[in-house]
Write a structure and sequence with these properties.
Blueprint (H helix, E strand, L loop, with lengths): L1 H24 L22 H8 L4 H9 L23 H12 L4 H10 L5 H14 L5 H7 L5 H14 L5 H7 L5 H14 L5 H5 L7 H14 L5 H10 L3 H14 L5 H10 L3 H13 L6 H10 L3 H14 L5 H10 L3 H14 L6 H5 L6 H14 L5 H11 L3
Helix pairs in contact: 1-3, 5-6, 6-8, 7-8, 8-10, 9-10, 10-12, 12-14, 13-14, 14-16, 15-16, 15-17, 16-18, 17-18, 18-20, 19-20, 20-22
Length: 407
């Protein structure tokens, strides 16, 4: 029984150590499926080599979870981050030791281990190495990373590009421009991503050439990079991508980039995408971009989407965009959505938007919203009525408050 308990504690410790390390690092990778446990449990601050060894063979789902949890091991009550609860399954002692490791200055052996990890045959080791390098903010890595963008292994070239992007190394712009022509689509995509993260607009012209790459991941990464750079000279090309690209994901990020660029010349193309694109995700992003642009001349297209789009996310985002624009002529469509839409999220956002547009009188559906079955709708309706200030609505608000009082 004691041996079994010790083994369980060892598994818990090693798994916790790896999970904390990976989540603190953040990022995504694809990898193998089992964790190999061979080192006995020690109560010491882990070093980089121990963490990289623990990462070998990690299940892909763990690495994917790490991408979604840009986590922090901040101290409870001290302005920490995602992992700052006072009691968790992953013990505070483990989190403290990992925090100490990440705060410590990397010594020469750590640096060599991380650089060697970029060329590992295990994708999780490669990705974790790149991420720890990137989060170190140690610019002494730039030269050896630049050399590794010419490595024989595509995985190593890809990891080096990721690390350079995370470091924000402007000295790496020239070598990354060369990597944009790499034969591996994964490497090209990550080089474009890295340049977008670095943010040097002089790279925009080269990145734009990849908008016609045969691989969707490369095109999408290039679109996102241009959006991050706010490369406004590329609006027309991004509009072409939004209109013609065969990949819904590429069209979606093109709509996002156009919203980021803030160019009014994109309103027509975004309105067309909102009306005609086959993908609900693209239409939703087009609605968001129109709201970001405060494109009041697109109010009709947004109103149409709010009334008739079969995708609830599109309808909700259209309601949000109309609220952002503060256009009173959209009040009727918003009131109708509040009264009729079958999805609570859409009704709640429509109620919020009615408060934003500051109508002189409260629509009947807004007053009725005080009795909606959805808590969020009732809350937003009450807030909107407080913004409008229609005296005729006071009795309904008073009645709703009485009904919400606990018995």
């Amino acid at each position: 029984m004691l041996n079994i308990q010790h083994q369980e504690e060892e598994v818990m410790f090693r798994s916790s150590l790896l999970m904390v390390s990976v989540f603190v690092a953040g990022g995504y990778v694809h990898g193998a499926s089992t964790v190999k446990l061979s080192t006995p449990m020690h109560h010491h601050t882990p070093d980089v080599r121990e963490v990289l060894a623990s990462a070998r063979g990690v299940a892909p789902t763990v690495c994917l979870l790490a991408a979604d949890g840009v986590a922090s091991t901040g101290r409870w009550g001290g302005g920490g981050g995602f992992w700052d609860a006072p009691a968790m399954s992953i013990g505070g002692e483990v989190r403290m030791r990992v925090r100490e490791m990440l705060r410590a200055r990397l010594d020469a052996e750590d640096q060599r281990a991380l650089l060697d990890g970029l060329g590992a045959d295990d994708p999780c080791v490669r990705h974790l190495s790149a991420t720890i390098i990137g989060r170190s903010d140690d610019k002494s890595f730039v030269s050896p990373l630049t050399a590794r963008t010419s490595a024989a292994s595509p995985g190593e070239r890809q990891s080096a590009a990721i690390a350079l992007g995370l470091l924000g190394a402007r000295d790496a712009v020239a070598p990354l421009l060369r990597v944009l022509r790499d034969p591996s689509p994964d490497v090209r995509a990550d080089a474009a991503w890295a340049l977008g993260r670095i943010g040097d607009r002089s790279a925009a012209r080269n990145i734009a050439t990849l908008l016609r790459d045969q691989f969707p991941d490369v095109r999408a990464a290039s679109v996102v990079a241009l959006g991050r750079m706010e490369a406004k000279d590329n609006v027309d090309e991004l509009l072409r991508v939004l209109r013609d690209d065969t990949s819904p994901e590429v069209r979606r990020v093109a709509a996002w980039a156009l919203g980021q660029l803030g160019s009014r010349t994109a309103v027509g193309g975004l309105s067309a995408a909102l009306h005609t694109d086959r993908s609900g995700e693209v239409r939703e992003m087009a609605a968001w971009a129109l709201g970001e642009l405060n494109a009041r001349d697109a109010a009709e297209a947004l109103t149409s989407a709010l009334r008739s789009d079969d995708n609830a996310d599109v309808r909700e985002t259209a309601a949000w965009a109309l609220g952002e624009m503060n256009t009173r002529n959209s009040a009727d469509a918003l009131a109708d959505a509040l009264g009729r839409d079958r999805e609570g999220e859409v009704r709640a956002t429509a109620a919020w938007a009615l408060g934003q547009v500051h109508s002189d009188r409260a629509p009947a559906s807004l007053i009725a919203g005080l009795k909606d079955s959805d808590d969020e709708v009732r809350l937003k309706a009450a807030w909107a009525l407080s913004q409008i200030g229609d005296a005729a609505a006071i009795p309904a608000v008073t009645d709703a408050l009485k009904q919400d009082q606990p018995e």
